[in-house]
Amino acid sequence: MAVETGRSVAKAADARSIRGRGHRPAKNPGRLRRALATHWYAWAMVAPVVIVIGVIVGYPLVRGLYLSTTNADEANVERHIGVNDIPATYKAVGLDNYASILSDGVFWDRLTWTVVWTVSCVALSFVLGLALATMLNRKLAGRSFYRMALILPWAVPAFVSVFTWRLLFNEKKGILNKILEGGGIDAVPWLNDPTWAKLSVITVNVWLGVPFMLVAMLGGLQSIPGELYEAAEMDGAGAWQRFRHITLPGLRSVASTVILISGIWTFNMFPVIFLLTRGGPGDATEILVTYAYRLSFVVSPRDFAGSAAWGVLILALLSIIAVAYRRALRKQGEVW
Predict the structure, then answer these.
(1) Within 13 Å of residue 35, how many CA atoms lie on the same side as its CB?
(2) 334 confidence band (pLDDT: 50, 70, 90)
(3) Is residue 143 pLDDT above 80, yes or no?
(4) Alpha helices (H) in the chain, listed in sequence order
(5) Pair type for strands 79-81 and 84-86
(6) 15, 163, 216, 295: which could join 307 in a potential S-S bond, CB 3.0 to 4.6 Å?
(7) Looking at the whole model, is its pTM more than 0.90?
(8) What one-character DSSP code corresponds to residue 187?
């Protein structure tokens, strides 16, 4: 009996070895293949959006990158005049456009003011939005009305708000100067003096940005458990201590996200600058994006290659800032 059992085991081992020599084990599918096989429905739903974004964003981005390495302008691009087709004659120049921009003081002046403008607007919007959200998070009469009234500037189209502010800032007939004249104060050249113009555009952009900060901060405040405040109050913590040790840490994840989004929006906030001052007086309020627009649509001959290079540099700056900001958050323990 023992002999037969030993022979059967030996035959089974020989059979396994023969199968092993004839058939290799199947390889595990790759991560991408497993993801597609597991989440194919989600990929199918996302695919149309990805394709549309790729066409709308991807093509202009690639086209801009290409034009930034040429000397394309209004005089040498392809044109159609009547039945005549004039072919393009521009040529590649490599990185000459970037070298010219970075060696010119105009870029650094615009960049300095753009950074000041962005930091000022985001900081003021965040502080005001947080203060208003803290007040509206309490129980008070007419709270719903106040919330709706403070969100109203966000609902009004930006160009309507800017034109309204432009009427208010009018030096001769504006309401603000009429009020000042009624108090015996000379009219202020809101949009005709470089310093006042900078303060004016910052004011308008903060007025437009506060509702976004208010909504975000209010949502973050309502997500903080009320038991934490009750426990802190029972332990004798004051209002400032509760705000510092409970409110601010509880809002950290929300605040980090909205600050980054608001910073990107403000960095590229074209409507406020262009519609309110058009970069003036002179070029005092010109930011990077409005100067890129000026090169492509205002100056003659229009410098398409230079404008594209400015656009690529703006994209690179924002990408660097976003990556650095994300890494700083990860070092602080924020998963984002």
Answers:
(1) 6
(2) low
(3) no
(4) 2-22, 31-38, 40-53, 59-67, 96-102, 105-136, 143-155, 158-168, 175-182, 194-222, 226-234, 239-242, 248-250, 252-267, 270-276, 288-297, 304-331
(5) antiparallel
(6) 295
(7) no
(8) P
